[in-house]
Design a protein that fits this description.
single chain, alpha/beta, TIM Barrel, 2 domains, 8-stranded parallel β-barrel, 14 helices, 42% helix
Length: 330
């Protein structure tokens, strides 16, 4: 397919674009709720559901530094040691690729990320804030040299000044990174903003052969809408989680996304079974999904930590009190 035909398909929601890749980050993003203390049974069920559903990538968790994070407090998926992942997937005979996230300044990437020839992992996703772009590029270069596909997720894009974002994207465009993600960490963007930002990312990155990805949060119940808006605008890598699992308001629900995409390889039914058998029982132990306090932090373009603390406190349903605390009363 030539570039003209590819370009023609962007902007049409009914078009089938085989270059679109879906990445499930249920274990990684969902693990932020419970310190990544998922059982092997749960992780294996998510893996098998993703394989059966035709998902392109599954992210297992973080490559967290054991010098920073106590392994007694956090589960295996905060560290994603090779033996832990192989305990679930063996040599990963499936077509689905595997990824992990390396958080800038919170991982020992030179030591903990093995050469690709020694690992079942396929992709390293580097997460950073805009001021950490130089460190992120070093991490991307390290992963690229070791033989991995690479992504860079620029977090909290809603707080970044336009000039800083442009300079950061230009620096990444000159790096060996394969994909750069637009990340709505606070769930504050509206679809019009996603459309314009996706085009801005593409203008800078596609000229250097880079792809653009979309990672949305659901504070204002726009995680799904913003993901498909980014896809229609030309982003080819789309993040989602099963049942929208993720810290706070959660993420774009994977089952909604696969139901929307016009690719015959995708199958929603295995995801529904995973939700029924695995996710619903977990909701009695850990909370995720849209709640009014997350709406408030999304409206205010703030990190959801205050809403998370409120939901875990003594007055989790005092929405008016939370509003007054955040914005002041009349």
């Amino acid at each position: 397919m030539g570039p003209e035909k590819k370009e023609a398909k962007k902007g049409k929601w009914v078009a089938y674009r085989p270059e679109v890749k879906v990445l499930d980050c249920t274990i990684r993003d969902g693990g932020l709720i419970n310190n990544h203390q998922f059982t092997d049974e749960f992780v294996r069920a998510v893996y098998e559901a993703n394989v059966a559903a035709g998902v392109d990538y599954m992210e297992f968790g973080y490559k967290g530094s054991k010098r920073i994070f106590d392994s007694k407090e956090f589960g295996d998926w905060k560290f994603c040691d090779e033996e832990a992942i192989r305990r679930i997937v063996g040599d990963n005979p499936a077509e689905m690729k595997l990824s992990v996230m390396a958080d800038a300044e919170r991982c020992d990437y030179k030591e903990d990320i093995l050469p690709k020839s020694e690992s079942v992992i396929d992709m390293i996703r580097v997460a950073c804030y805009i001021h950490q772009i130089p460190i992120a590029i070093e991490m991307v270069e390290d992963a690229n040299t070791k033989g991995y596909e690479t992504c860079c997720n620029i977090m909290a894009a809603s707080t970044v000044h336009e000039n800083d974002l442009r300079e950061g994207l230009e620096a990444l465009a000159d790096s060996p990174v394969d994909v750069v993600y637009l990340v709505d960490s606070f769930g504050s963007f509206y679809s019009e903003e996603i459309r314009e930002l996706t085009k801005r990312y593409l203008k800078i990155l596609s000229a250097k052969g880079k792809e653009v990805g979309i990672h949305m949060h659901n504070n204002q119940q726009l995680g799904f809408a913003n993901t498909i808006e980014g896809m229609i605008s030309g982003a080819n890598y789309l993040d989602a989680t099963i049942n929208g699992m993720g810290r706070g308001a959660g993420n774009c629900p994977l089952e909604l996304l696969l139901g929307f995409l016009h690719n015959p390889k995708f199958n929603v039914r295995p995801l529904l079974k995973c939700i029924q058998d695995q996710c619903l029982p977990l909701q009695s132990e850990m909370e995720w999904g849209y709640q009014l306090p997350y709406m408030v932090t999304g409206l205010l373009n703030q990190h959801p930590r205050t809403a998370i603390k409120m939901r875990a406190g003594e007055t989790p349903d005092d929405y008016v009190g939370f509003w007054d605390q955040m914005v002041g009363s009349d």
